[in-house]
Automatic annotation (TrEMBL), chains A, B:
Domain HTH tetR-type, chain residue ranges per copy: 10-70
Organism field: Streptomyces curacoi
Record carries keyword Transcription: yes
UniProt keyword annotations, A-Z: DNA-binding, Transcription, Transcription regulation
Stretches of the chain forming a coiled coil according to its record: none
Protein name per UniProt: TetR family transcriptional regulator
Molecular-function annotations in GO: DNA-binding transcription factor activity; transcription cis-regulatory region binding
Length: 208, 208
DNA sequence: AGGCTAGTGACAGCCTCTGACAATTGACAA
DNA sequence: TTGTCAATTGTCAGAGGCTGTCACTAGCCT
């Protein structure tokens, strides 16, 4: 943020992002054109594409921050924790501290609303899932490293992350269709779904 | 397939689909325009969009058939099987019988090659994942019904499917980056990843 | 045989995204 | 302060996906 040039650039990007999110969450993603965004910020359409690879990238920018936050949390888990426990703790801690991370850029409320938009907009939801798949691969590597394993030789890191990721995506989805759109509700849901993994995998459900 | 009109329609659709898949698997998805496909079949671009909602739909048409095949297999599992076992058996049986289902439309080889294209083309992969998420929801309902549960009251059906689905997507991905692109390899991978779920969830991996 | 309708082609147009070039503006040294 | 260089932006042009409209043709039905 040294020079004037850099500050101006940052301001343009911020305006673009904030305006985009505002429009997405009010009139919907599909209903908002890039021209709308550019016009609202009073820059050319071309400029928008110089800051964001596409409409999609702007829509997922906050999610990207959250993801980075979680991955960092996983990396910082103490090595003695069992793999699944490390993932669990990282996510729970992530929810607790996400507020500050997001508020540094936009109101947390905008993030939560955007989350809904993502879950309910097919093309965004698809992109979100693809991104999740990428993240899972990198987390599997982190896990493997923690345990001193080779991801390509031992399937357990990837399997563990696949299972965990599956449950996390379920959690996100159920949160988005629920009524309580708070980070706290997200946290609570996370805990309850994770503790259902054991029971769900048990032989028969009838003998609960 | 009664009238001439219906037969002609079917032929146009077949030609469109087959040509599209052929082009996608040879020059790549992004490199193939709808105009290319339409031109190769000698119909107008507009006609392509009358048969497929978009380029994407054509690319995922076979996958859609396979999915329907699997879902049907799950529904036909004997009620006494434990949930996870029913899913496992359905998928394995699915792989065994998929050949005939696909061959009825296009050479199985085209399906396998298209699968690779999907996994390696971001936008297609994303769409594929989104579709998988939809399927998971419907399978969770099947499972709940089998067990006489309410999907919204008992989390276990959705959790079980989320876990299973996570592992299946991992399986697909690893298959697509491997060397053996046969249905048999897919089957083998499925078995080996599924049996890693237990070990991956265990407390510590070091005391294997 | 003639009316009816599904299917198609031909346009026109919107929107996302990219390349190219020129104009503007900030950075920095003389 | 001024001139030069480089970064940023606007403008234009155009490709490609996708949709609406309308007229026309070919199969269908009585």
């Amino acid at each position: 943020m040294e020079t004037l040039r850099e500050r101006k650039k940052q301001r343009t990007r911020d305006a673009l992002l904030r305006t985009a999110l505002e429009l997405f969450t009010t009139q919907g993603y599909e209903q908002t054109t890039v021209d709308d965004i550019a016009a609202a910020v009073d820059v050319s359409q071309r400029t928008f594409f110089r800051y964001f690879a596409g409409k999609e990238e702007a829509a997922l920018a906050l999610e990207e921050m959250a993801v980075a936050h979680f991955v960092a949390a996983v990396r910082e888990r103490p090595p003695h924790e069992a793999p699944m426990e490390a993932l669990r703790q990282a996510v729970l801690e992530g929810w607790d501290t996400l507020n500050d991370v997001i508020e540094a850029v936009v109101p947390i409320e905008l993030y939560l609303r955007m989350y809904q938009v993502i879950e309910s907009t097919p093309v965004l939801f698809a992109a979100h899932l693809r991104r999740s798949a990428e993240i899972e691969e990198s987390i599997a590597r982190v896990l493997a490293e923690r345990e001193g394993l080779d991801v390509d030789a031992d399937p357990r890191p990837r399997v563990a992350v696949a299972v965990f990721g599956g449950v996390m995506r379920l959690t996100e989805r159920q949160w988005s269709v629920g009524e309580d759109f708070s980070l706290d509700a997200m946290r609570t849901l996370t805990v309850s779904y994770l503790e259902q993994v054991g029971p769900a995998l048990s032989e028969s459900w009838r003998t609960r």
